[in-house]
Sequence to fold (168 residues):
Amino acid sequence: MKTGSTSFDEKAMRLMVERHYEDVLAYCRRHAPVSAAEDLTQETFLRFVRRAEAYDERGKPLALLLTIARNACIDAARSAGRAPSFVELDKGLEPSQSDSYAVELESALASLPPDEREALELRFDQGLGVAEAASVMGMSRFAMNRLLKRALAHARSALAPEPKGRLK
Fold:
């Protein structure tokens, strides 16, 4: 990796893989079929290694890795002849009563358009800043802020309790 005048070194790469492998895998599991997630995660790190000499550490390395993972998932979807989509996890598990809020939240997130859901995932699940999330999704910070605001409004309305006494 380049940090100023320091050139790429294998130890730094190994540390980056150890630190971010699970995050990249989780992203790939949400954006590709589970059966392809591990392969796409490995592809992400291979793409990074191939271009590591040009890497210049600015911002969080995770933002760059998620950008590469996003492109790998899109490429895999294109080669499979379908549009990329979110994949639901653990459909067969019955939620317990204590998990009711988590189930409601998952349902609310599932109802969002894919770009809004991905923006929330990058910002709040992966912990990226607005600028980094915008970079991953290939948009300006201004556009990301608007997308996040819209996504949060949609999520809030999906989680809002139904008013009592009103018929549908």
Remarks:
- Confidence is low (pLDDT under 50) at residues 1-7.
